[in-house]
What does this fold into?
Amino acid sequence: MRNTTWVVYRMMQKGNAVGGNVVCSQREWDIIEASNPGYHTLLHSGLKTEQEAEKLARGTAGDTLPRKTKTKIADSPSIPTDNPGQV
It folds into this structure.
């Protein structure tokens, strides 16, 4: 069995609109790049596993959101009075 390395590239769509990030094998990338040189942008190459490539392609999408802590409401400040002897 042949060792496969993986790449992540940014796909361009018609009219130069940016598509999503795509994962494929290095061999597939070589074919894509040969058919239309420079059209798509290579972001990462030489990745050992498809899982690693998928994670890089997603970026932070799908990550667990950090827990939000409840903010404590501060005590209201004392209201000054005109007569310091009165409360």
Q: What stands out?
A: The beta strands are 6-13, 17-25, 41-47. The first strand starts at residue 6 and ends at 13.
